[in-house]
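Dig into this one:

. . .
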Amino acid sequence: CYNANPMSMKASLDVLQDGAGRRIAVLGDMGELGENEVQLHEEVGEHAGKCDIDVLICTGKLCRNMAERAQRTNPDLKVIYEPDRESLLEHLEGYVQDGDTILVKASHFMKFEEVVTKLENM
């Protein structure tokens, strides 16, 4: 979860499809994308919507675009949007269960290592 760009996000989602149990992607904002940042988040959302995953949890201001595009691409995908990391941490236990395969990925500034620590301690 140390860093993220559109290519690494899409590749990670591709790998997640092979996971056992429910496949959950917990994704956060990607930084340093320049003037195309909204479009690039939407592209990742579209890719997520086409992947064989069970739940997409998007966190951060830019990830709202990702969540909306994923939901439009695949209305059957369970998409959850959390506005910030604190809100995600507060609700995370209600989203995951034993046996889930969970992908956690965001740019470093999102501090998703806290999300990983919370998951490890559940």
